[in-house]
Structure formats: structure tokens, C-alpha cells
Amino acid sequence: MNTIFDSPQGADLATALERNAVVCVSTQRLARVLRQAWHDRLRSLGHEAWRSPDILPLSAWQRRLAAALEMQRAGSGRPLPVVLTEQQELLTWEQTASESGVLDGLLQPLQLASAMMDAHALAEHWDIRSAGEDASVGDAAVFTAVRARAEERWRKLGAAPGTSIAWRAIDAVRELLAPQEIVFAGFDLPPDAVFQATVAALEKRGTRVSVLRVDAPAGECRLHRYHTFEDELRAAAHWCKALLERGEKDIGIVIPHLDSVRQLASRVFAGILQPSALLRAPGERPELFELSLGPRASDEPLIHSALLALDLLRPQLPLEQWTRVLLCPFFRDAEKAVAMRAMVDAELRRRGMREADVADVVQVADSLQAADSLQAADSLQAADSLHAADSLHAAGRIPVATGQDTLLAALRTLPDSSGRHGAAEWAEPFARTLDALGWPGDRGLTSREFQARSRFHELLDEFFSLDAVAGVLTSSEALTQLRVLAVSHVFQVRSTSAPVQIMGVRETAGLRFRHLRVLGMNDDIWPPVPRPSVFIPLALQRRAGVPESSPERFLQQARTQTELLRRLAPEVTFSCAASEGDRELLPTPLLGELQPEDQPLPGGDVLAVIGGCRAGDLETSTDDIAPAVTATERIRGGTRVLTLQSTCPFRAFAELRLLATRPEEVQHGVRALDRGTLIHATLEIFWKTVTDQASLLSLGDDGARRLVEENVDQAMAKDRAMRVRRIDRHVMDAERENLIILMMEWLMVERTRTPFSVEQRERKVTITLSGLSLEMYADRVDRLEDGSTVLLDYKTGKKSVYDWMTTRPVEPQIPLYVQAMDNDIKGAGFALLRRGDCRIAGLRNDDLDAAEFLPASEWLARWVPEIADWDELRRHWSDVLRRLAEDFLAGSATVDPRDQASCRYCDLAALCRVHSRREKESDDAAE
After folding, report:
1. Which residues contact 653 (CB under 8 A, 6 or more apart)?
2. Which of 81, 219, 393, 714 reaches 20 to 30 Å from 623, CA-CA?
3. CA-to-CA distance for 541 and 539, rounded, in angstroms?
């Protein structure tokens, strides 16, 4: 990479370094580049050994001077206050603002405390002293009061904020030995008060001070325009690829808003420059490009997994958090025990647990392991181990390895997390938890993961340092502070000296490139929106010279930065986007003299090629016949087997035989499934006590309501699912009242029916169709006064008699029940329980005297004339059900949904790709 050594001032800088001058630069990147360039220069001159140059960022030089001043003052008996770390200072601001009542009622108190800390730093760097009426009203007055209390807190702690380091460095220059010569490089923007005071103090001590500014001529510039910002990225990546193929290096990509598009930029450049790397972890591939502004430490997988492990010390965790813990690859035996841990996650979801503690998860795991052990033993006695495994798999169970899963065993040994302790005292529970879970896993770490582990230990050290200011913390408070640290700090992988460097505008200070592109040159991105502090009066900020306090001053700074970008390379290509969604975009006015040139998007990258493929362009192979169901294969699901086969044969095969079902998502409140279960349970209890219509009529309205209330309470108590116990009380009270009202509406329907007695409730029925044995439970069988029986199936949704009639019935349950029971079933229907629409929808034999059921011959004559009467309808059902059973047994797995509604609640679209098939059919029809 070219640097200011190649500029006209390069000789002066080289001469200063030969005189052992201190070189202070604006960024860590520039310090690294200058050190490497200096080493390369001396090596090219034939040197074999040399003194390491004193090149470092200004902040590092200030810390060095401040440390020297602390040692000198300590030796003379005048110790300086301890300098707070950034997190320590933020915590003191949060504590002070909370005590002042400023944070009361705020949803994001930490953000306000951070804004106040930034305002204090701004005031320190620009030497702003609030005074007069400007600081006595509004936000400024609040900030002034909080800052005064914060300063008092710091005095009591014997501490000082981090911004004091810069002023201590100035005191060190005044009191200690100043360097003979110092060079400042990369400081091309207007200096703040600290910088000016530093230069003045150095000059007063006789130090030779040089401030190098970029004076290279502007390169040849052009402005390209693409359709979208992602197109800009793709074009820039293809441009880099062409340069790399020619052996070029020193390629720069500048993106002003890199922090918000970092992941997109990484994905696009990886897909074009290193497509094979998309299949490997980031730490396992040679990098052709490097992004500055690393991700938040909390987003790095290894660090994120450590935070997950420590979160187990909280009293409870949301289900989503438990899913991440159970499926995390950075814990001991993650690969070997993945099946068991996935089953625990699925069971937690099935039980509807929005939150769970360690005891809940252990209990679920124990119940699963007990069930697996019993089922495995039964299967092994009947067949060899392979057949046993097949049997368990077909039943939806996966046998686990002998012994307790290490993660689940570790949950039993987690340290006590109760009580309140200082930050440093949490070190021992944190270490024990990570050790118990085997973090960071069994496999060897990549270079990136090794760096991430070191970074996490640094974060822990910084967290333990909060002991000086935090007081005692609960486990939740301690973990929240640790997570705040991980969120506020970045994780930057050590530089790989990649030939392509992607960075923000600030990181370009002092650099030179052979090739450069600047992206995102739209008016909504560049110049960026000024954000002056609301806590310091604008008049004071303007008086101090803060650029963002004045539109004119901020615009001038943006123009200066734009001019500096023009000088970073002999040729500079700026680019902008023409649109974002439906919004038209304009180029930045700061490049007004450059006319945008519309550019086509280069093709050829892997992601674009794959994304642009049409289904018709690919070779297709149809394989819609699965292996037939074997005699040893257990099929569970009851009526659902034929329901799914009728809905879509592929879905039946995938869900019932491949067990390709999506884990349940926990919903707030009572799920529709739970509501249906409660209704069924209530009706079963009610009709166990009230056995016929006469008994119902004798109760009267008041008696019926009292009995319904008792039955509803019994049903809710009977449901042992944890989801019911975890729902808020007021939600369950509302659900109870709704269920009572619904039951009373339904009983009004029951009172007006033909006289009946309830003969069977939840009757178990078995039917065998062409070798397929199905077990099911009929909700209710009533016997009428003439001795005939009718069948009722409780439903809470919209249902129609027509759902039974087609060759692919929507609801085959009632046809199955009728076929499985005795021939004396003379009528069948849905018992529809819906608020405001309770009724019976069903058909009957014409000889049956039951007005609530429609005569089959009349209804069939109108809607299905090819079927004559009830007896013929039963034969029709027999043929339809037998054909569905035979297709399922034969392995029919065609992607053939009955209608578009069949795909609405299906989770297999990515597997069957039915939408791509429909698009192809539409294209073929259009052609």
C-alpha cells in the first residue's frame, strides 16, 4: 500500500525518523502501514537490522505520557486519580443519571447515559465550559446537573474519566522531558482544543513539531452510477478481481456507511473474490480482502457462545436462548449429542414454554431419556439393533448414546448464582460455568477463533475491573454489564495484509493507494447527517469550533474530506446508486462537477449466477415414488396420515416418514391447539356427568352454568402441559370466561336437538385399510330414541359437509370413523363450536328422524348428484379412503398439493420447491 512516504513530504518524514523522531498518527491502521513501509524502505536500502521506529497513534502516545506523569507524581507523593476505563465511566454516568431521576420511565436508559458521556468527552476535547443562560435550560441544564454529580462521584472514588488522559499528557509535556522532535500525520481536519494545546505545549518546551498534511495532487476522477447499492458492491468486487488477476495490490475500497452494510459487503466480496470460501468458516480461508470496523464482539460466534453459557446463571431464559444453548457447537460433545439436544429443544417448544430455568430443561431431558431407554429396550428385544433404530426413527424418536449427555449433566452442576457480589467475585462462577460446559468445544480452534477467545478473556478482565465502581450485582445485573461490554467493543481480526482493503472514510487518513473506489456517493449518505450534542448549547459548540455545530463549518469539513478522497490514488472511481426500492436516489452534490455515467452490472459471480437461474434452465429429474412402507415400519398419526396424503402426497411422506417437521414456535397466550384441547376435555367431563338431553334440560340455565364452570376448571387443572401453568393469570381468566360463554352457547344447540343420550366419549377406534392400520378417537357417539346412533366430531374452525365429498377430502376423519364403526351409524357431522355460530353440520340417512342433520339424498342431489344416498356415500368413502391408504403404503410422494390453500401452513416449501414449479408452469403457459 502506498503511504505518505510516496508524497512530496515523504523525504521529510524519512529524515525525521532517521533522527528518531516520535511519529503520532490519527489511526491504528496508518501506524501499522507506516511501520511496514519504513521496514520495507530500510530493507531495500540494504539494512539488515535497525531500531524500531516510534510510530504510534496519538491516543497511545498520550497514554504513555500520562503513565509517566502518574509514576512521577506517585514518587513525589502527589498521586493522580485513577483513570476510569470506558465501561467504568459509562457505569458511573448511568448510576449518576439514575440517582438524579433522569432515567425514570426511559426505555433505553443506557443510551442516554452513553450520550451524556459522549457530550462530556466533546466538552473536554474542545475545552467547552458551560456557563451563563445557555446552560441553564432544557437538556443542557439536565446535563450540567448530572455532570456535576458525576464529577463529585469521581472525586469520592479517587478517579477521573478517560478524557483526562489527553490533558494529563499535556501536563506531562509541561513537567517532564519532552521529545526533541515529533511529527503528526493523518490530521487533515480542523484540530480540536486538545490537539492545539498539545502542539502549543510541545513548542513551548522547544520540541520540533511538524504536522504533515496530504498535498498529493487530485487523481483522475469519474462517477459511475448503478441501479442499487448492492450493484455498486458487485461492480467494485469484479473490478478488484480483474486487478488481482493482473497481479495488482494496494487496492482500496472506501464505503462511508460501512458500519451499516458490513455484512452485505463481506458476503458480496466473498462471493466474487473467493466463492469457495463461502463453504468454509471465516478463520479457515486465506483472505483476499480485509474489512475494517470489525463486528461487535457479541456477534462473533465464539464470544457469543461464551455469553450464552454464562446466561445460564440467570434465573430464567427465553426459549430462543435455550435453543441457542442446546444447539451451540462450541460446547463439549456438541456433535455427538446433537440429536438429544435437538429433541430437548423440540420438546420445550411442544410444551409451549416461553421461558424456562435449568430445572425445567433437566426435567424435560430426563423424561425424554427415560422414554428413549424404554423404547430402545423394547425394540432391541424384538429385532436387531438396526431394525430397532429404524423403529425408533419411524416413531419420531432417536435413541441416544448410553449415559448422560455432558451438557445436560453440566446443567446439574452449575454454580449457585443467587445473591449479590462484586464484579470480581463473579470470576469464579463464570469460570466454573464455562468449564462445566466445555467451552469452547472439542475441536481445534481456527486462527480467528483463537483470537476471539483471547478477546473474550480481555472483556472478562475489563468486566472484573468494574468492581471499583459497580458495587454488588445480581447475576442478571453482572451478565447485563458483561453483554454491554461485548456489544460496545468490536472484534477486529489481526491484519492479514490482504491486497484489497475495505474501510470507512476515517480510516483513509494519511494513506495512498494504487487503485481506489469510493462507494455510496449518494446525497443521503455523503455527507453524513450532522449530529451535534443536544446536551451542550449550540452557541458554546460554535464558539469552540465544533464542526457539527454549524452547517457552514460541517459542509466545509465534508468538502475537505471529499477533496482528500480525490487525492488517495492516481485514479479514483466514485460510484452511486440510482434507486433504493421505490425511492429514486441522487448523487452527492459534493461531486457536482462529475457527471454520473450509467454502468452495466458485470456478471459471473457465483451468487448472481445461482440467483438468476430459472427452473427451466436446470436439468430436472422427477423422483416421486418413495420406498414402500415395510411391515416393520411404524406409522403414527391416526387420521392425519390420510389427511396429509389427501392434502399433498409429498407432505405425507416428508412429515410422517422422514419426520421433516418444523419445531413448534411458542406463541403468546393460549394457542388454538390448546383451546381445542380444553374444549374437548370440558365436553368429555360434562357429558360424563350429564349423560343425556333430559338431564341437560333439567339443569336449567343457572345449574348448567355452574356445572360448566366446574368442568372448565377441571379441564384446565387436568391439562398438565407446562404452557398452561406459564401463561399469565389474567390471560387464563379471560380464556376461562370465553370458554364458559362458548359452552353455554353450544348447550343451547344441544337443548334443541332430537332427544339423545351420550353413549360414547373419546371412543378409541381402529381401522385397517389395505394393510394400513390406523388408531383414532371419535369425539362422541349419541344414541337417539329409535336406537340409531349418530357421530359428532368437535371442531372450532370453519368446516363444511363438502369437505368429505371430493376424491381428495379436506377432512377425512368422519368418513374414517363411519367406516370403522358399526353399520348402525345413521348420521354424522361436525359439532361446530364457534362464538356466535354454534351448530351441527352433517348428513343423515333419510330414514333417521333428526332435524339437526340434513337428509343425505337431498343434499347429494343438489351438490354431488353422482352419489345417490347415505349407503352409496359410505361406499364412496370406502373407495376414496382405501385408495389414499394404498398410495401412502406404496410410497407415493408426488409434489401435488390439492390447492394453493394446502401450502399455506406447510413448512416444506424449501424442500419440495413447489413455488418454483408453479413459476415454471406459468412461464411455459405464457410462452
Report:
1. 626, 888, 891, 892, 893
2. 393
3. 5
CA atoms of 460 and 454, how far apart (whole Å)? 10
If one counts every other C-beta atom within 10 angstroms of the C-beta of residue 772, the result is 19
Residue 717: Cβ within 10 Å count = 10
Polymer length of the chain: 927
> Which H or E run includes 24?
strand 22-25
Q: Which residues pair with 211 in a beta bridge?
A: 184
DSSP 773-794: EEEEEEEEEEEETTS-EEEEEE
Please give the Cα distance from 842 to 389 (Å, whole number): 44
Q: What is the DSSP letter of 490?
A: B
SS3 category, 857 = helix
pTM of the complete model? 0.78
d(CA 127, CA 125): 6
CA distance 546 to 540: 9
- Strand-strand pairing, 317-318 and 355-356: antiparallel
Question: Given this model, what pLDDT does residue 134 score?
Answer: 56
- Residue 234 CB: number of other CB atoms within 10 A? 23
Question: pLDDT tens digits, residue range 702-735?
Answer: 999 999 999 999 988 875 544 545 677 888 889 8
Q: Is the pLDDT of residue 584 over 90?
A: yes
Binned at pLDDT 50, 70 and 90, residue 298 comes out as very high
Q: Which helix (H) or strand (E) holds 339?
A: helix 338-350
Q: Residue 764: helix, strand or coil by DSSP?
A: strand
Q: Which helix (H) or strand (E) holds 222?
A: strand 220-226
> CA 635, CA 891: separation in Å to the nearest integer?
13
Element (H, E) at 82: strand 82-83
**Distance between CA atoms of residues 738 and 850, nearest Å:** 30
CB neighbours of residue 40 within 10 Å: 12
Q: Decide if 39 contacts 71 (C-beta within 8 A).
A: no
> Reduced to 3 states, what is the DSSP secondary structure of residue 828?
strand
Dihedral sign of CA atoms 790, 793, 794, 799 in order = negative
295 class by beta-carbon count within 10 Å (0-12 exposed, 13-18 middle, 19+ buried): middle
d(CA 682, CA 762): 12
Which residues are CB-neighbours of 645 under 8 A, at least 6 positions away?
652, 884, 885, 887, 888, 892
**Residue from 257, 282, 271, 187 nearest 503 by CA:** 257
As a whole number of Å, the end-to-end CA separation of the chain is: 54
d(CA 65, CA 194): 14
pLDDT, residue 798, reads 86
d(CA 821, CA 767): 9
Distance of CA 483 to the CA centre of its chain: 16
Give the list of residues 6+ apart from residue 673 with CB closer than 8 angstroms, or none: none
Q: Output the 3-class SS for 830-849.
A: EEECCCCCCEEEEEECCCCC
Burial label for 872, CB within 10 Å (0-12, 13-18, 19+), is: middle
Cell of 633: 415400519
Alpha-carbon gap, residue 26 to 507, rounded angstroms: 9
In this structure, are residues 252 and 566 in contact, taking their beta carbons and an 8 Å threshold?
no
DSSP code for 278:
G
CA distance 155 to 161: 11
Side chain identity at residue 26, one-letter code: S
pLDDT class of 636 with cuts at 50, 70, 90? confident
- Mean pLDDT, range 632-655, rounded to an integer: 90
Q: How far apart are CA 334 and CA 441, in angstroms?
A: 7
- What sign for the dihedral angle of Cα 213, 219, 224, 230? negative
